[in-house]
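dumping the sequnces here before i forget
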Amino acid sequence: MAKIHPLSGFPEWLPQQRIVELEIQDEIRRRFELYGFAPLETRSVEPLSVLVAKGETDKEIYVVDRLAAGTASPERDADRRLGLHYDLTVPFARYVVQHYNELDFPFKRYQIQRGWRGERPQEGRYREFVQADIDVIDRDRLALSFDAEMVRLLHETLAALPIPPVTIAINNRKITEGYLRGLDVADVIPAMRILDKLDKIGADGVRRMLDAEALTGAQVSAALELVTIAPGGREVIGRVEELGVRHALLDDGLAELAFVMDELSTLPAGAAVANMAIVRGFDYYTGSVYEGSMRGHEDLGAVCSGGRYENLAAGARVRLPGVGVSIGVSRIVGRLFARDLVPTPRKTPTEVLVLVPEERLRWRAQEVTHALRERGIPTEMWHEPSTLNKQLRYADNKGIPYAWLPGRGDDEGDLVRDMVSGDQGAGDPSAWLPATDRATARSRARVRAEERG
Amino acid sequence: MAKIHPLSGFPEWLPQQRIVELEIQDEIRRRFELYGFAPLETRSVEPLSVLVAKGETDKEIYVVDRLAAGTASPERDADRRLGLHYDLTVPFARYVVQHYNELDFPFKRYQIQRGWRGERPQEGRYREFVQADIDVIDRDRLALSFDAEMVRLLHETLAALPIPPVTIAINNRKITEGYLRGLDVADVIPAMRILDKLDKIGADGVRRMLDAEALTGAQVSAALELVTIAPGGREVIGRVEELGVRHALLDDGLAELAFVMDELSTLPAGAAVANMAIVRGFDYYTGSVYEGSMRGHEDLGAVCSGGRYENLAAGARVRLPGVGVSIGVSRIVGRLFARDLVPTPRKTPTEVLVLVPEERLRWRAQEVTHALRERGIPTEMWHEPSTLNKQLRYADNKGIPYAWLPGRGDDEGDLVRDMVSGDQGAGDPSAWLPATDRATARSRARVRAEERG
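..and the predicted 3d for all of it:
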């Protein structure tokens, strides 16, 4: 084996961490499916021409070449060269154009997959990462109710995870753009990109940059008044109106935001807030925009984000408006593990280690193992003659919650030992169940289904 | 959007196929966890030096370079260049060396992940593919019982999938090697590689190639006698002994195979057979070897394979013997879809579409949707005012099994329509359950668990 290189930006977890990551991914998937989003995976590579079409990110793309094909030459056709995708939207757009005739609309899909970016790694920013995306697209027109559904689903999903609460900030790009147009700002797109930097560079920074864009002092002050409105509920809309700027696009945006906030009025207070400072840098977004941050971990940046767009893919036969959000799974779990925010007591899914106290009980151990597995309980059987102490130490080291001792109970029956409390009791492999706080979420549902089903 | 390129060798599935693939992956994972294998994922890239160390496959490696880093130069240190992994064993070996102090032995892990090879694509051979691997490794010595456990788990897993039955052929490389040594063959390794080609080039081809290796006519005939023994149960061992060749290594191999076959005697007939023609090309394997093929689809090649090895990674502080198998998930599902071997009626996980028969019933539709989701039943609600026909057509197109009609039953109650049979009946969202043959496996377990608490 050659030298071992930990690679910066390519996170890997220990089994006890992977168990937690997998529980999180399972819960995300369960919630996405509960809302009727269909599973999808796309290939990891796209032609470079597809990847660079979106611009901006080309410096971060990983190019893929066959080693046997020799040195990559820049002259080779960009259409034939391949790169690893850096998000799940670009491959999704390509997929929809490619399979347009085989899909039914509105098309709702989720994708939980890896992406790659050659960025400088830092906490929360990886070169290889897992994202969980949902999008709904329709032909020509997409109902506004989906803009609210996105936030509801996002909230329910994130609230079900073992992570700090997430506040989802909502805005509508029509508000920002309409407001700037109402102020007679000549070039609104660069101004919006600057306003999006408020939380990074502060009001003074934004003011300086807008000055440089040749906005008048009055325009700059008015723009700052908008984005510094205190985030909150539906009342934020009234505050925008009080600023007195008028424009048809602004009215549209406020009406859409009002609809979304009304639809979300049953969410817990603070779960979703209207926030005029959320602009999103991507020109791609044309309506609702979202950004979520974990309370107490705002320094990590957005743990989820998304918005509405006019057209997923210019190559399709019709316009495909959509709305989508993306959860940064690696960013979230990376923080959980770096700050020890979640317990990781289990190194294995095994719930029961069946011991072999002496060789003559091996057949009984085998029977117990088989019976427990038949009932959906993850079970290992000790594999060789050893002292009981060695066998118990293995269970203890791996965080296996129960040890099963065949023939060690009354009348040659079995004993089950709770490895945490040390308590022992009689065990019958055809009826015994782990305590719910000892089993994994996945196995709990399974055991119950098999028990009653 | 740039031009759309279907990429040969990079399979992608439609949502209805992805649902089936995901059910297969879930079942594989469930079985692996039932036996106590811990989940693990490794990064997708390794230093080229790690990937080429195993030899043979370097022509198939995909190299990864940052686009911004300019043209890759062959002079760059192979230690610093990265490639995509082509299997899950090489990254696993590197992972174990890297995290040796943090792991507990015997270490059992599973990995369901993508791999990449720049091979010429053909049916069953992809450039990007999903594999499901299990390995168990221990320090210094690994109990032989794991060699049997691999086959039992593999059989139970594959038998639970919606695929044709798989026959797992078992051999032991000590038998082949010991037998050749007993024949005084000077250079056994190349001879074993040739014997491994029996099913591809036939007995005549093997004879010609062994002749070219300077084996005597008697040695060649005796070798062919071994590998052409009819596959079967424990009696195969007697047939090998009847050939009259003697060698200590051969005896070891036969004893190990006898132990494994005895441990597997409770499997259904034909599930696992001793087969002397299974040699495996990798010199890496040193004991038990396995290869599984789908009955009626032998032309596809092995759908699973593996074996025992002396040492996972030379870089570790101690010897790490192990045994592992790999299931070729993409190869299996690719054949299922290419030959229409599995029904794919559902384009979405949604089990119920809640209709909005008229606008005044929207609130009721929302209540029903919420109640069903709360109970773990994947539900969509129709999103805009439309005719009932249009709403029902959507459910029909996507294969959603139930349509829920709020306020259309007796006394303004709800009606539920079975979209397959057309039957309608009263529905109560706090108690109604989908028929088990209409729900997905995943949701069935969920509903039952939530129902019975």
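The longest strand of chain B covers residues 107-116.
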